[in-house]
Each structure stands twice: as C-alpha cells, then as structure tokens.
Amino acid sequence: MVDRPGLKVAASLASLIEDRVLPGTGFESGAFWAGVAGIFARFAPWNATLLAKRTDLQARIDAWLVQQGGHPADHAAYQAFLRGIGYIVADPLEHPTGITIAPRNVDAEVTSLAGPQLVVPVLNARFLLNAANARWGSLYDALYGTDALPGPPPGRSFDPARGALVIAWAKGFLDRAVPLAQGRWADLTGKPVLADPSQLVGRAGRNLLFRHNGLHIEVVIDPLHPIGGTDPAGIADVIIEAALTTIVDFEDSVAVVDAKDKVEAYANWLGLMRGDLEATFRKGGNTVVRRLEPDRQYVASDGSNYVLPGRSLLFARNVGHLMTTPAVILRDGSQAPEGILDGIVTSLIALHDLKGKGKFRNSRTGSIYIVKPKMHGPEEVQFTDHLFEAIEDLLGLARYTVKVGLMDEERRTSANLAACIEAVKNRLVFINTGFLDRTGDEIHTSMRAGAMVRKGDMKNSSWIKAYEARNVQIGLACGLSGRAQIGKGMWAAPDRMADMLEQKIAHPLTGATTAWVPSPTAATLHATHYHEVDVFALHPARRAEAVASLDALLTMPVSPGTNWSEQEVRDELQNNVQGILGYVVRWIDQGIGCSKVLDINDIGLMEDRATLRISSQHIANWLLHGVCTKAQIDAAFDKMAAKVDAQNAGDPRYSPMAGRPESMALQAARALVFKGVEQPNGYTEPLLHAWRERVKAEEAAEAGELKRKLGA
Ligand SMILES: CC(=O)SCCNC(=O)CCNC(=O)[C@H](O)C(C)(C)COP(=O)(O)OP(=O)(O)OC[C@H]1O[C@@H](n2cnc3c(N)ncnc32)[C@H](O)[C@@H]1OP(=O)(O)O
Ligand SMILES: O=CC(=O)O
Ligand SMILES: [Mg+2]
C-alpha cells in the first residue's frame, strides 16, 4: 500500500491511475486523491447507514412473518405493515404531476432504437472485444453454427443442406424486414427492387445497406464468394445490427476480490475507452489478434458518406453498495466501499472517451454510462445520484454527465419503482428487470413465510408476472419511451438458440426496448425480434394499461403445500446443488465469475452470482422449513461433487471435490447453503470473497515457498 492524501492505496492501483489513467485528463495526482478521500469521507458512513437499514428492515419482516405464522392472508395488513416500517414509501405516480424523466445528451442507441443488450465479464479481454464488436453480426453464421435451425450440429466440413436452410431462413427474414416490390428474396436473381425504396440507405461496393425499425441490415453481394457464387443473386451473407448496447460487467459475472483483480478490470475498461485494447490468442490453429472494429462506411444515394457505429455503445456495470475492497483503505483503517471506488474510477477512465483522447468514440453525445445493480429502494438510489454528483464535481463534469442504468432487481426497488426512478430522473438511461437477483431477493425477503415453490415454478408465480408487467408500465408512465431503455433480463441458456428465437420475442412484445443476451451470437438472433416487432409503436397501448397491482407483486411464492415426493425433493436438491458446485468450484479455485454449467439434464446454463443466490437461498429455505433434512442436502452434495468432477475431468486446472472435505470450493458451496439464511439479503459475495481470498493466500504462500526453494 502507498500513502495518498487521506488514504492508503494499493500500489498497483495507484500506479494504474497515476501512470496510465490521469495523464491526458488534466488532473494532478495529489488533488485527485484528496478529492477521492473527500468523497469517501462523505459517502462511506452514509453507505454503512443504508446497509444497516437493509438489515433492520429484514429483521422486522422476519419477526412479523414469524408472528403471523407464515404467509399473511390479509394483503392490506401486510401492505400496512410494510408502509409502517418504511419498506414501501409514497408513490410519486399518485401525485397529480406524476414524473417525467429528463436525461440530456443521451445516445440514440438508448433513446430511439430498440435492440439487444449484450453483457460481458470485464476480466476477459478476448470476450470484451468480441462484445464491443458485436454491434454487427452475421445472420448466416449465427443460424448455421447453433441449434437455431433443426438438424444435427454442423461438423468440420460445410453441410450444403444446412446451408440451404440458413439461406431460406435469412431470406424469409428479409421478406418481412425489407420486402421486395414483387416476389420473394429467395426468387431474386438480380438487383432487388424494394416495396419501399427509402429502405435502401447506403452501399459499400456491391453491398446494399437497408434500414428497418431504425436498425440496419447489410446484404453482402459477392458472386466470387463460396456462398455468394451459388446464390442466384450473389448473396454471400446478411450482416445485421445486433448488440446496440453492451454492459461491461464489473459485478456478478466476475470474481474480483482484491487490488490485483480490480486493477485488471479497470485496465480493460481503460483499453476500451482509449480504444487500444487488444487480445492475442490461438484459435483454429491460428494466432488471432483481436481489436476494436472501426466505424462502418457507406455511400448514401445522394453520394454523401453514410457512417454507422462499428461498435456497441458501452456501459460499465459497477458493483452495488454491499461490498468493500482492500484496494483502498480509509483513514479509520476500514476497507473502502467498492461501489464508490467503481463509480469514481470507471468515470475517470471514461474521461478518455469524453475528451476524445481515444482512438474511437463510445458516447457520441458526451455521456458516461454506469449500470448500478442491487439497490434497495429510493434512498439507495438517491445515494447513487448524490455520489454521481460528487464524482462529476471531482472530475469537472457538467451535472448529469454520468448516467445511470437502474436495475430493478431487489424487491424494495420493485415495490417503489416510480420513487426510485424519480430519485435519478435527470440521469436515468434504463430500468431493467434483473429477474435472477430479484428471485433471490424474493426468497430471502420472505424466508420466514414458508417453503417456497420449486425453482422451476417461480416463473409462474404471480409476483414475477406483476414485476415484469409493472416494470414496463411504470417505466412508460415515467416517460421512458424515447428517453431511456426499458429492459428485460438475461437469456441464461446460451446454447438453446431455437428456444430463444421462439421465446424472447416476448420481450419486445411486452414493450421492452432492449433485453439481455449472453453472447454475440444470441445478440444477432435476438436482433431479428426487433424487426418483427416495432416496440415504440406498441408503447401507447402499453401506456394505457392499468399498472399491475402492488398486492400481486407482494404475493410471496410460498408453496400451498409441501407434500412433494422424496424423489421430487431429491431432484430439486440435486439440481440446485449441481449448479452451485459447478459454478462455485470455478469461482473459488480459478477466479472464473461466469460459467456455462451443465444442469441435471446436461444443458449448459449460464451461471453467475445471481443464479447462485437463487439456488443457495432456495435450499436454505427448504431446510429452514423442514422440506428436507441436512442429511438429504449432504447426500446431494456428495453425489453432485462426483458429477461435477466428472464434468470437469478435461480441465487440467481443476481440483476435484468428491471425498475431499478440505476442498475450499466445496466448503464455500456448503457454507452458501448452510449459512444461507444469515447472509445479508441472501447475497453470495461475502462468502465467495472470503473463500477466494483464502485460496489466493494459499497460492501466494505456495509460490513464495517455491521461490525460496529455488533461490536456496
Ligand atoms: C444475472 C446477470 O447478471 S446476467 C449478466 C452476467 N452474465 C454474463 O455476463 C454472461 C456473459 N456470457 C458469458 O460469459 C459466456 O457466454 C458464458 C460464460 C455464458 C459461456 O462462455 P463459453 O462457454 O466460453 O462460450 P462458448 O464456448 O459458447 O463461446 C465462446 C465464444 O463466444 C464468444 N462469447 C461468448 N460470450 C460472449 C460475451 N458475453 N461477449 C463476447 N463474446 C462472447 C467468445 O468470445 C468466444 O468466441 P471467440 O472464440 O471468437 O473468442
Ligand atoms: O443482473 C441481472 C439479474 O437478473 O440479476
Ligand atoms: Mg443481477
């Protein structure tokens, strides 16, 4: 650690900031750190007070539910109780003036376009670059390489029958998005004549650029290409605008526990904001160097240049208010709140973009986009608003330059959504239903109400339907249409693209202007939904709907009975335990924060800290209410440890867990379940961090020992 005015800062972080971030921003290091110390002095105690309030409210809810003897039958009494303890506050939409958000200088990707939002873990430069470049994706590749179309997965050599299916699908899509004046794209043999010629907005060589619902589609015409050569119109590919926005995730998809990890994360964000991030890796026997794509150049019909962004608009998801970081130590010797540090450093780094110091532009309108997760209720959102004001003052930025994406993923936020929106109304750029964290919080908040329904049945609960509907309805009532995104949650089955194509169209149909996808391929396929549905045209009808009731939102997913068979209980436990172990073992032992983990049916599911929160809270709930015994959970851990070991047998860095009670990963996984009831809001971070730090300390000690031996 090195001393800086009012703080101790990890040497690696001080060096990143002073040697690589501050130069070019116009800030001098001493003044910068003094300003940072001032922000911590003001906001760290406030942050602690907010966390204490979370604990206090949860204790009151627990006590009330115990006193009621479980799920209260009387909705009115429950609401009155929640209002009495300050869990529910006054709804600004009930005020005659209502609220209309008013963010300024927001990019078109957020205000007036509807399309996919990709999420990418910040620690993986190869994925980060791929995500930023996922603004454009090949529809042919996305269809050919996934299960989007029927038939066996493609092998090494080109399968012409599958190729024909791909082309038929893509041309069917063009028929709907860019219809021809006569006939179908499949029958085209020459130049297309469009039903609406104004859809042709540019050309690049022979390629044609079309626009539909604000999104672009480039039809690649190349008769010399192996595919184009066999196509009657010479069409070699259909490239579509895909991930309009991407969230660079510092939160639930990464394992960041110390200064070294934080510096790596911030350095990658710096590379994105400066435009010089590179990743070199081996793929398919070749060395690949991946960089950010430049903007795309076309010629409009009047001969002028038509330039389109080559990259997705990037947001940084900071961590929430809960955790602290050893990267900065405050004057009283305590660790700094990590969310405050993230806010300061990610904004500071984004100055490189704002001041035009980078190779490319991220925000063309001069905004910094930060997603703030896991906030509980309006006071916590207001805290973020004030923190961002202080950061703007520190960095000499105009008020409301730093924008916020508000995750609606905790119950107290859903129950007070309009008040939360009001708290950041001048900087709000999205609301989003993070249904995974939200499910974890649903279980934890009502832990004492009774045994929850099975995990798979959660999606049919009345609370989740009300939650999803209210988010859109309240968003529209607060004027988000045309000003900010209304977003839907993650498609957590990255290999199930046929299912995604079938189901995720529901997101734009409900009025969402964006929805999360786990990969560039998923972004390309999901983008087609925003051609099928003109989301903005649906908004007036959605806006006219009555907002789903608060009572429905507050209805707890407690099972009406617990007479599950022994087999059903075993299946439920094993499914949850397998997900927990498969995810935790990589987090703890290898520092991997987001994984594709096989579920009990061998389907690879995206697991992150939010899905872990659900699984661990669910088992903790069933144990608390006697649906299962500790012995049954132990048996599930024994059986699934062996299964997860077998699934990872090909990984040379993997340490088995079965029969090894000393495995730190296994101990962490067990603690998440057996100490689940007492975890703050059911979060998994405190235990994950503690165990990962132990593994890192052990590895460092072993490395030191080896060095000593080699030196001796
Ligand atoms: C509840 C929440 O908070 S959800 C938000 C947090 N979740 C996420 O961020 C999920 C992001 N997605 C991912 O991390 C990954 O897709 C995983 C872990 C789910 C699967 O990863 P893998 O098993 O390695 O994926 P898979 O082998 O199918 O594909 C890898 C290829 O896809 C690309 N890819 C996969 N996901 C992404 C992504 N999110 N962004 C960019 N590229 C990606 C990789 O770059 C790689 O391509 P390359 O070889 O050309 O570099
Ligand atoms: O962050 C997203 C979620 O679903 O949780
Ligand atoms: Mg979340």
Give the secondary structure arrangement, pairings included.
Blueprint: E1 2-4, E2 7-9, H1 11-21, H2 29-68, H3 75-84, H4 108-111, E3 117-121, H5 125-132, E4 136-138, H6 139-144, H7 160-177, E5 200-204, E6 207-212, E7 215-221, E8 235-241, E9 245-249, H8 259-274, E10 279-283, E11 286-290, E12 296-299, E13 305-308, E14 313-317, E15 324-329, E16 335-337, H9 338-354, E17 368-372, H10 377-395, E18 402-408, H11 411-414, H12 417-423, E19 428-433, H13 435-445, H14 462-477, E20 485-488, H15 497-503, H16 506-509, E21 514-517, H17 520-527, H18 529-532, H19 535-544, H20 550-553, H21 566-590, E22 595-598, E23 604-607, H22 609-624, H23 630-647, H24 664-674, H25 685-711
Parallel strand pairs: 3-9, 3-21, 9-14, 14-17, 17-18, 18-19, 19-20, 20-21
Antiparallel strand pairs: 1-2, 2-15, 4-8, 5-6, 6-7, 7-8, 10-11, 12-13, 15-16, 22-23
Bound molecules: acetyl coenzyme *A, ligand LL5AMS7Z and magnesium ion.
